[in-house]
Amino acid sequence: MIENQNPEEIVSSPPAKKKSKKGWIIGAVVVIALIAIGLFLKNKSSETNADGTYPQVEALFSAPAYDKIPQDYKVYIYNYLSNSGYLDGTYFMTKIPDRAKRVFAFGDFTDDGKENSDLAIILEKNDFKSSKLVVFNDKGELLFVEDYDYDLPVINSFNTGAKIFLQENKLIPAPVSGLIIQKESSKYVVLYDKKSKKFSSYYQYTDDDSRVADEEYDEGGEYTESEGETEISTPAVEVQKPKTEVIEKKSPSVETEKSSVPEVKVEVKDEISL
Asked: What is the pTM of this model?
């Protein structure tokens, strides 16, 4: 069959071009360079200080109070800021040493039996007026996030059994550990509800709330005096009574002087008549 074919009809494929050694060398150099850059960046990101800390992480925690936060939790905070796009300064840990003492707290906020395994922090916004509450567990997983617009609270933790206000103005033992959120003019607790499986905030009543509750608001837009204030003002009226008594005491003295004069005159008349 092949012998009968016309030689012109047989199409021969072109011979394969051999790659030059120069091309192979260039390709190898490029690959090696990319690998080297990748290793450099990886080593740079995992570079540690002499004490085993990460410089780029430690840069976020400049205040001495942050030394109480373990390194792995600092990494959790750094990763949260990085993954959320906040490393540009949108949110940050406060740089004020005195405030830094009150912007993080440990506790067992989900009541899983791991004491002080959860970490709550307050991140400040770059407007220096607003903030964000973030709660992590010991694995760095997010448990709760809440924004506070135009407020820079401080926080603290409390243990199970601490007396708090929940649904009414009555102190009861806390069913689980929680957080106290102290704002400029109010106080809240953040507590995990095992029934609803979520965190909730509860307002905490103060002595000022009790006093305001006793006041009555009139139509003129001003608070009227409460009963307690009325009782306090009563002695001011009683103080005026001694003035009246003094006047009354003077009256008899005047009458006595007047009566004594006739008595003298009578005695004189009697002597003359005799």
From this structure: 0.61
